[in-house]
Fold this protein.
Amino acid sequence: MASGASPLNSVELAAALGGTFLCAASANSFNQVLEIPRDALMKRTAKRPLPSGRIGKEHAVCWASATGVAGVAALCAGTNLTTAALGAATIGLYTMVYTPLKVVSPINTWVGAVVGAIPPVMGWTAGGGPLLAPEVLAMSGALFLWQIPHFMALAWMYRADYAQGGYRMVPLTDPTGERTSAICLEYSGYLALLPFVCWGAGVTSCMFAVESLAFNGAMLHASARFASDSQRGTPHARRLFLASLLYLPLFFGFMLLHQRPPAHVAAATALEADNADVAEEGAIATAGPRERVLERGRKMCIHEQIQNNKTFALWQLQMSSSAARKLQRSAQRYRSSRSNSDAPQRRVAAAMRN
């Protein structure tokens, strides 16, 4: 989204993706190093490489350190200092704040959600976007809100395991599941409102809010079933967890499709040049793969086609005014050239009269 008006830079893209991946690998590796004794007590994590003894602690520390340094260096060299600082902050917060807090307070879930909301911001800043922008709040807000029902459902499914490992999670102090399911429903409701906020802030078109009713409705339904079931069994939590896995790609896919300003508005602006045909051919020829994919997606969307038609009508009006001005200029040039070409004849006629 940040680079919608500029060509895709493959070097920056590779640095952003690779650097973010390495930073995430570093944070996750440090997390597993710190949690070896507790992971060994949990059935879900006992077979991980460190607690099972397949990898030594020293090797894991070396790997975590190397990937962290390499990730931050790649972001710094291939993108910018802001993105590199965000990558380093992700490693630090995840390792030194979130991981120790997991055995201290249930608030760790919210702290972990803050850390998990940073990577999309890194992608935005890597593409040249400003750190303080509505798009940043939309993307990071979506990740933050989504993680709460996602991990609450997971923690409810494995609450006995978490208790065995000594972690402080909300479901462990909520034997009936009433509070856990209420939190899931609450944050699913916030997620349902977010597309309308994106529309109101001008980040997307109104169709993102309209089409989000489908996948947000599914998420709300799964959360409501979990909350309304008096037994709050594992199947209801698992359905919510699986729904959350499908939710995120749908959210960002439709957000990308309906982002503002769309590619056709940028193309219409370019077509206001004097040579409309050349400008249009140049815009098509120089469009990157991202723009072509987005335009193909918009062509498949009926509602965006309606918007396109409105934009095309406005463009036609602008182009007719431009054509009228060009015709007027051409007529003036023609009259001027005729006047210049007739000047010798007028001089001869005047001499003959004299």
Notes: Residues 262-281 have pLDDT under 50 and may be disordered. The chain has 15 helices and no strands.
